[in-house]
Amino acid sequence: MAVLITGIGELTTNDAELGKLRDAAVVIDGEEVAWVGAAADAPDADERIDVEGRAVLPGWVDSHTHLVFAGDRTAEFEARMAGKAYSAGGIAVTVDATRSASDEQLAANLRRHVGEAARQGTTCLETKTGYGLNVEDEARSARIAADVADEVTFLGAHLVPPGADAESYVDLVCGDMLDAVAPLVRWADVFCETGAFDEAQSGRVLKAARERGLGLRVHGNQLGEGPGVRLAVELGAASVDHCTYLSEADVEALAASDTVATLLPACDLSTRQPLAPARRLLDAGATVALASNANPGSSYTTSMAFCVATAVLQMRMTIDEAVWAATAGGARALRRDDVGFVRPGARADLHVLEAPSTAHLAYRPGVPLTAAVWRRGKRLTSGFVSKW
Ligand code: NIG
């Protein structure tokens, strides 16, 4: 069944030829976008929905979350807000809670958070393992994630479990753990940071994952400058995420590569780190994505709109740069071209704003501006106006 969405005041397509359109219309057929153009030229369809001048953009592509977890870390957050520094060690608290949870509890928690994200316009979401840290719990996390998320990443190398020997744990990750999860995931990631995995250990994990055909991602340069970015670029990772502390050499390496710099502003704020140097990256020519990093420790938000507003208001990204980074940029970080765009053949993932333009995402920060969401051609939300 074809659905015509018309009366679009501003349409962000992210397509180089289509650009940004005014007074536009989109036709959805099944799960795909079938037509995009001026409202006056729109073809007939089975159903017609007038969005009355609202802005439409691709659904958010959140390319970095950690949502297979149980438990709560409010106390750690409160301590941080009282001055305690964030460290990788907090991950172990969530590992204990996750191992103790049933499959049903983990799946329900994941679905609750993904639903929360979808109501705010997220239509494509990556999530990671990394709170299991043994073969059985990493494999079960991957299975649960694969049932719900668009993209799944293996992050057995998130933390050396307390009490374990680091080298033996890396052997396990590169051997039995990868064997168990590889059929369930598309990506492998490593937390290359002081307190987590050093350069040699990270390199071993990434190479072992690559040998099994997995795509690579890296958590790097979150808490200080380090080898994460260099390693990611050298190994051809699709993305290096965080990038809070970058040397000039890191920026140049990213600009000269296909590796996306995925910035996580909500995490920088929640861990009281400086905000990542988006302007330096963009001015050098690097590809930048924005993601939520939704997780119970360092960034407990699913709001991509909050990330976009922060990127514009505080990281000096333009509105168009930030919106691109949170849609097509996320898609690039996941090496996909079916999401993050509104053009014929793309997945019909649309986000209608309760606003006439995407500028309102930063102009009206903190205001819930999602008016309607379509994912795979299916409308997830209904109605545009709430009555008081
Ligand atoms: O991306 N950096 C490592 N992993 C997460 C933190 C997870 C946690 O603290 O539970 C992150 O910030």
UniProtKB/TrEMBL annotation:
Pathway assigned in UniProt: Amino-acid degradation; L-histidine degradation into L-glutamate; N-formimidoyl-L-glutamate from L-histidine: step 3/3
- Cofactor(s) in the UniProt record: Zn(2+); Fe(3+)
In terms of one coarse class, where is the protein primarily found?
A: cytoplasm
Q: What does the record give as the reaction this protein catalyses?
A: 4-imidazolone-5-propanoate + H2O = N-formimidoyl-L-glutamate
Cellular localization per UniProt:
Cytoplasm
In which residues is 4-imidazolone-5-propanoate bound?
73, 131, 158, 222, 298
Q: Which residues bind N-formimidoyl-L-glutamate?
A: 131, 295, 297
**Co-factor binding details:** Binds 1 zinc or iron ion per subunit.
Q: Which domain of life is it from?
A: Bacteria
Residues binding Zn(2+): 64, 66, 219, 293
Keyword annotations: Cytoplasm, Histidine metabolism, Hydrolase, Iron, Metal-binding, Zinc
- The Amidohydrolase-related domain sits at 240-363
What GO molecular function annotations does the UniProt record carry, in alphabetical order?
A: imidazolonepropionase activity; iron ion binding; zinc ion binding
* GO BP annotation list: L-histidine catabolic process to glutamate and formamide; L-histidine catabolic process to glutamate and formate
* Enzyme class, UniProt record, top EC level: hydrolase
Name any GO cellular component annotation.
cytoplasm
Q: Does the keyword Nucleotide-binding apply?
A: no
Q: What is its EC number?
A: 3.5.2.7
- Residues where Fe(3+) binds: 64, 66, 219, 293
Q: What Pfam families does its record include?
A: Amidohydro_1
**Protein family:** Belongs to the metallo-dependent hydrolases superfamily. HutI family.
Q: Entry's HAMAP family? A: HutI (MF_00372)
Q: What does this protein do?
A: Catalyzes the hydrolytic cleavage of the carbon-nitrogen bond in imidazolone-5-propanoate to yield N-formimidoyl-L-glutamate. It is the third step in the universal histidine degradation pathway.
Record-given protein name: Imidazolonepropionase
Question: Which species?
Answer: Amycolatopsis decaplanina DSM 44594
Query: Taxonomically, what lineage is the organism?
Result: Bacteria, Bacillati, Actinomycetota, Actinomycetes, Pseudonocardiales
